[in-house]
């Protein structure tokens, strides 16, 4: 209960000035609930008036008075409830908006490495969907909670107002219904909603992967069973939902029986009471309790739905905490400017969150201004990790990454980004024109500067075949670029940025031979008079580098020029020999023996 109150308190903390609207809505809802009970009293008074006058004429004026009182109090109750929902809806929408804003503001402060392990679709779901879950709690369930708190007090008083025996029977059914609800929602079912959300998230993620792999499925005539992860997610979700439904059979049956069974108890009770007292009085009281008992059942239903909404909100806050608990990138109060474009790693150690061993272990090397340095080595050796520490995708656990003698942690983030341009093997283009995609590197660049960057990146043939040239929007009307063409657009971005340090992470990985040749020519324009740190598996692209650093298991094992490393007959020499053999391999028939 403390956790739920904490979640509700945190949600209301995002309401800002609209918190008073939420409070007003709850007060109006409570008043509406009290007014909603008055028509039942009017029915009892009208029935008493009729039966007391029976069989003679009865007072029409009294009936009219009780009737109109019931009508106007019912209308007033509806109007107040409508006003309450209007207030809480406005507050709920503003609160959800503020939650989204706060989450996005926090995301913008996170290191760039956070986004490599969290896909945009998952982040959107965490922020948008979970913020939306709080709307139902604030807009509907919270004002209902206010009414649910006030109603039982008034209802219990009314249950014992006319006939305590019949009132006790109605109260008994309410208590039994509440116990049945606790049976359903307690015990092993208490954590169901958390498990349910986890399975939904897992199934959604696997569904996206399955949709992306449909071409492969169709090509090889496979079925959904070929995607074991997706099939397993569907099966686990189905089993979880089925197990929960079956575990609720007894509780739900008892709940519905008790909540709707008051009438069955009232009939024999009324017959027994009528045999020993005034029949007219018993009949009036029976009419009242027969009408009022379903209203008490509706109150119990509200309690159940309210508790479900609180669980949803609690889960939403927990999910949002997955983002809000991430530590933002720390900005140094003392900000310095680098003297030049030199890059230095001084005893750097870094371990990814959740990993059991460091990705980089006591790594030290330096890149002089204007020098081209290549990082090579086996997969998983730490090459990409080292490159990502320069623009502060992550911060080193120990040691120092410096630019121009200044620790990158002591540089202003914008200044750091102005000093570093990077091109990755996984290029991302916006659904915008080619002009805006290239201009993303420098929004104030003129059209002529963008064209010059595209020309330097060997993109003339790409612009030439586009229907609107530089103004063609990528991703619409069947206009898409190949992997090599996307790389050249990304290189145009980097050229336009004109940063003194360039980081290239396997930029020719998905390029065909023709695109690779053009990309290599674009490299010449991009890296001219720049400090370059490049990662490559094709060793032919790094043999002319000023320095080659071999990383293996997170450590620097070899360092030097191409010729000096070959002379060592170590890891690099073995990699070079494997590369030469693979380059000479051809498809052909094996010679007969």
Automatic annotation (TrEMBL):
Chain ranges of the ABC transporter domain: 343-578
Xref: InterPro entries: AAA+_ATPase, ABC1_TM_dom, ABC1_TM_sf, ABC_transporter-like_ATP-bd, ABC_transporter-like_CS, P-loop_NTPase, Type_1_exporter
GO molecular-function terms, A-Z: ABC-type oligopeptide transporter activity; ATP binding; ATP hydrolysis activity
TM segment ranges: 21-46, 66-92, 166-186, 254-276, 282-301
Lineage top rank: taxon: Bacteria
Keywords: ATP-binding, Cell membrane, Membrane, Nucleotide-binding, Transmembrane, Transmembrane helix, Transport
ABC transmembrane type-1 domain sequence ranges: 23-312
GO terms under cellular component: plasma membrane
UniProt membrane topology term: Multi-pass membrane protein
Main location: membrane
Localization terms from the record: Cell membrane
Full protein name: ABC transporter ATP-binding protein
Species: Candidatus Onthocola gallistercoris
């Amino acid at each position: 209960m403390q956790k739920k109150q904490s979640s509700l308190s945190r949600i209301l903390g995002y309401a800002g000035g609209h918190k008073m609207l939420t409070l007003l809505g709850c007060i109006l809802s409570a008043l509406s609930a009290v007014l909603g009970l008055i028509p039942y009293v009017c029915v009892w008074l009208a029935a008493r008036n009729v039966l007391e006058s029976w069989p003679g004429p009865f007072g029409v004026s009294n009936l009219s008075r009780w009737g109109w009182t019931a009508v106007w109090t019912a209308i007033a109750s509806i109007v107040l409830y409508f006003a309450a929902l209007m207030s809480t809806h406005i507050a709920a929408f503003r609160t959800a908006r503020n939650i989204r804003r706060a989450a996005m503001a926090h995301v913008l402060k996170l290191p760039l490495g956070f986004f490599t392990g969290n896909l945009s679709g998952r982040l959107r779901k965490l922020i948008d969907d979970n913020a939306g879950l709080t709307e139902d709690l604030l807009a509907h369930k919270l004002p209902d909670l206010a009414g649910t708190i006030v109603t039982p007090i008034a209802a219990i008083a009314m249950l014992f107002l006319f006939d305590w025996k019949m009132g006790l029977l109605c109260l008994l059914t309410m208590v039994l219904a509440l116990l049945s609800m606790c049976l359903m929602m307690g015990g092993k079912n208490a954590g169901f909603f958390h498990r349910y959300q986890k399975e939904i998230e897992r199934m959604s993620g696997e569904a996206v992967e399955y949709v992306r792999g449909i071409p492969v499925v169709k090509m090889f005539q496979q079925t959904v069973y070929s995607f074991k992860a997706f099939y397993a997610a569907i099966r686990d979700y189905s089993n979880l939902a089925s197990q929960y439904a079956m575990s609720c059979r007894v509780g739900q049956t008892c709940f519905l029986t008790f909540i709707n069974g008051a009438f069955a108890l009232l009939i024999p009770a009324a017959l027994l009471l009528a045999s020993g007292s005034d029949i007219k009085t018993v009949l009036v009281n029976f009419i009242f309790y027969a009408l009022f008992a379903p209203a008490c059942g509706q109150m119990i239903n509200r309690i159940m739905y309210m508790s479900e909404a609180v669980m949803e909100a609690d889960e939403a806050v927990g999910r949002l905490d997955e983002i809000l608990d991430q530590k933002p990138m720390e900005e140094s109060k003392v900000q310095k400017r680098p003297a030049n474009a030199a890059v230095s790693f001084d005893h750097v150690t870094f371990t990814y969150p959740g990993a059991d061993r460091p990705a980089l272990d006591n790594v030290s090397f330096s890149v002089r201004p204007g020098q081209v340095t290549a990082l090579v080595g086996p997969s998983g050796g730490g090459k990409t990790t080292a490159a990502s520490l320069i623009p502060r995708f992550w911060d080193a656990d120990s040691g120092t990454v410096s630019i121009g003698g200044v620790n990158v942690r002591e540089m202003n983030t914008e200044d750091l980004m102005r000093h570093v341009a990077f091109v990755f093997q996984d290029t991302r283009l916006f659904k915008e024109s080619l002009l805006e995609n290239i201009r993303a590197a420098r929004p104030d660049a003129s059209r002529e500067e963008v064209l010059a960057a595209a020309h330097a990146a060997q993109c003339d043939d790409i612009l030439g075949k586009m229907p609107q040239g530089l103004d063609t929007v990528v991703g619409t009307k069947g206009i898409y670029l190949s992997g090599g063409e996307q790389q050249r657009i990304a290189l145009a971005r980097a050229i336009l940025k004109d940063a003194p340090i360039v980081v290239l992470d396997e930029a020719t990985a998905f390029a065909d031979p023709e695109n690779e040749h053009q990309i290599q020519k674009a490299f010449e324009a991009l890296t001219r008079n720049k400090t370059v740190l490049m990662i490559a598996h094709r060793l032919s692209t790094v043999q002319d580098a000023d320095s080659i650093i071999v990383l293996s298991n997170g450590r620097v094992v070899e360092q030097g020029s191409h010729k000096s490393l070959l002379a060592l007959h170590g890891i690099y020499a073995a990699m070079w020999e494997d590369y030469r053999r693979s380059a000479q391999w051809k498809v052909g028939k094996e010679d007969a023996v």
